[in-house]
Each structure stands twice: as structure tokens, then as C-alpha cells.
Amino acid sequence: MDWKWISIAALILGFFLLPFWPWIHEEWWIYAVFGCVFIAGLTFLISVFAKRGSVLWKGRGQG
Questions:
Q1: In Å, how far are 8, 19, 26, 62 from 23, measured between CA atoms?
Q2: Which of 13, 24, 33, 41 has its CA 20 to 30 A from that of 6?
Q3: Per-residue pLDDT for the chain (63 aa), expressed as one digit of tens each?
């Protein structure tokens, strides 16, 4: 599975939760939105830095 699709799906889910703005004082809403943003950011970083040709693999004899 490609990590970028998980990242895109989490961002879309987070944006779909944003119209429920009146519930911002509800704790579950805040956790849901920030959870989606966190998952999107984390999976984006994994997709960028986990590839064999990326910056982290340079100089290790892998890329």
C-alpha cells in the first residue's frame, strides 16, 4: 500500500469534519480533526523519507 493514499484519505476525512464547527467545544470533535491531521502528516513523512532513494538512505549504500 502506498502511504500517500492513507495521507490523502486522512486529510479528506479531516476536511469533511470541519463543517461541524459548532461542535468544536466537544472533545471528540477536536480529537477527530487533529487525529486526522496527525495521521495525514505522519503518513506523508513516512512516504517521503521511507523510500530507498530519499535523503535518509543516501550515503548508506542503499540508494
A1: 24, 9, 5, 48
A2: 24
A3: 566 777 788 888 777 777 666 666 778 777 877 888 888 888 888 777 776 665 555 555 544
